[in-house]
Each structure stands twice: as structure tokens, then as C-alpha cells.
Design a protein that fits this description.
Elements (H helix, E strand, L loop, with lengths): L6 E8 L2 E8 L3 E8 L5 H11 L20 H6 L6 E7 L2 E7 L7 H10 L2 E7 L6 H12 L4 E6 L8 H12 L16
Parallel strand pairs: 3-5, 3-6, 6-7
Antiparallel strand pairs: 1-2, 4-5
Helix pairs in contact: 3-4
Length: 189
């Protein structure tokens, strides 16, 4: 008989090899980053882990230096082909960020990630807006009764249309999509 709470064993890799770290279930959060291809999920995952001080440098998809796209084909094509797990610690909580591919051919990877996630961050490119892939991952998360958060990405681009993208979000996802925070200014390169 296990004492409550039952510990979860999380494996973390470092440069010396794999080590096991125990956390109670209440201290673990699994978040899937989902969205259409090119929305910036891998870059966001990298930034999240970098800002928890788990990384000493911020990798870039363009340079082939992100920790989640490590396969030679992913580096060459500059896309995620499979889901990858990135881990971090903040405020006594252990979290797993699951970076999922966005291309339609690889959407089953996102579906699998959502089966083990506590919630989904749906990443939307604020320039190109909501597309079919975005709608599909939103529906996958809804079918699993997962909480969803929309993250508008690429707000620094000169051709961004935040209002237009927000209108698309309202049209496609209805009243359950509510803006919690909007940028003061957007664009400008």
C-alpha cells in the first residue's frame, strides 16, 4: 500500500545521464502545446524552458538548435515530426511541456499528447490566424474535456492583425474563447 499521495516518477536527462526525480501527483502539470504548422509551438516551448533557467541558451528552429527538434530530419526540414517532452520546475511544481507537431500528417501525435495532458495551449500565429489545424486541435482538446488557452504568437511582426485574428477566434470557437490579456501595441517588426 502506497502512502498518500502516490509519488510519480519523472525521468529527467542531463549531460551525465538519466536521473529519477520523484514528485507527488499534485505537484505535476502536463501541458500540451498544440496548433497549426508554423505557429511557433517549438519556439514557445524553448522559451518557457529557457525562462525556468533549465537552459543556458535559447535555441532557434532556424538554426537547428532547439532541444525539442533534435532529429536530423526535423532539423533539416525545420518542423516537428513527433511530440517531444520538455520539463521544468517553477514554484514547487514540476511541469511537462509537450511540444506537438502541427502538420496534418502528424496530428495523431497531438491527439496522443492530449490524452496525457492536464490542459492545452493552442498556439495561433497572429499573422496567418486560425486555420483548419487550429480547429482540429481545439476539437481534440474539447473531446477530452481539457481546459484550453489560446496563445497568440508572432505579435512582433509588422503585418500582424490582432483584431482580425481575435475576430476569427470568436467566430470559430464561440463564446468560450474569451480574451484575458491583449497587447498594448503589436507589430513593428
Amino acid at each position: 500500500v502506497f502512502p498518500a499521495p502516490i509519488p510519480a516518477c519523472i525521468l529527467a536527462r542531463n549531460s551525465q545521464g538519466a536521473t529519477a526525480v520523484a514528485h507527488s501527483i499534485e505537484q505535476v502539470r502536463n501541458i500540451a502545446l498544440t496548433g497549426h504548422n508554423g505557429a511557433g509551438k517549438t519556439t514557445l516551448a524553448e522559451a518557457i524552458i529557457f525562462n525556468t533557467r533549465q537552459l543556458t541558451r535559447l535555441g532557434r528552429v532556424e538554426d537547428g538548435t532547439t532541444i525539442s527538434d533534435y532529429d536530423s530530419e526535423e532539423i533539416e526540414r525545420k518542423i516537428s515530426l513527433r511530440s517531444s517532452l520538455l520539463t521544468g520546475e517553477v514554484g514547487g511544481y514540476h511541469f511537462d511541456v509537450i511540444d506537438t507537431p502541427g502538420y496534418a500528417d502528424f496530428l495523431p501525435q497531438a491527439q496522443s499528447a492530449l490524452r496525457v495532458a492536464d490542459g492545452s495551449v493552442v498556439v495561433i500565429d497572429a499573422v496567418s490566424g486560425v486555420d483548419v489545424g487550429t480547429e482540429r486541435v481545439w476539437r481534440f482538446a474539447a473531446e477530452s474535456s481539457l481546459p484550453r488557452l489560446i496563445f497568440l504568437n508572432k505579435l512582433d511582426r509588422a503585418d500582424v492583425d490582432v483584431e482580425g485574428t481575435m475576430e476569427q477566434v470568436r467566430e470559430r470557437f464561440g463564446r468560450e474563447a474569451v480574451a484575458l490579456q491583449l497587447p498594448v501595441g503589436a507589430g513593428g517588426g
